[in-house]
Amino acid sequence: MATARSDYRRRVVSAAAAVAVTSALAAALPASAERLDNQVAVFAALDKVTARISKLEAPLGETVQFGALKLTARACYSRPPTEEPKTSTFVEVEEIQLDGKQKRIFAGWMFAESPGLNAVEHPVFDVWLTDCQKPVKAVQRPTAANQGGSKGQQPAAQGQPGGEEQPVEPRRRVRR
Length: 176
Hints:
Helices cover 15% and strands 38% of the residues.
């Protein structure tokens, strides 16, 4: 009976050690998600008086006005469609007061997947991030040509910007 207990304890301890080592390795590895820089931040803006929601497209560095609010997007990041969505922007929001002066009411990060986390809440207007558009550069996945071989590459299709080659997904065999 004593050997069965000690054998059980050894298995539990070795399983716990394996979990700890796996967790430590996962924490030490860099994240594999690729970040896309975008040129336009897309916001949804609610006018509480009229109950209308408007779509605002704010090019980076340019100010867009919605009612008494002025929004200036400074950065807009997203991920490729093949990755888990994560869209964020850094935005500055100023309110035009009745005397004509501008007062900054928000400066910070907004996250499209958590609109209630850092949305602009104003007595008359609400603003939140919905999307980022117009990536600065196309997503490039590693291909066999980039790694020294030419397997799985096709010539670039006509009409592609810069005549860049596009990666081709390898075919997978299906067992029947």
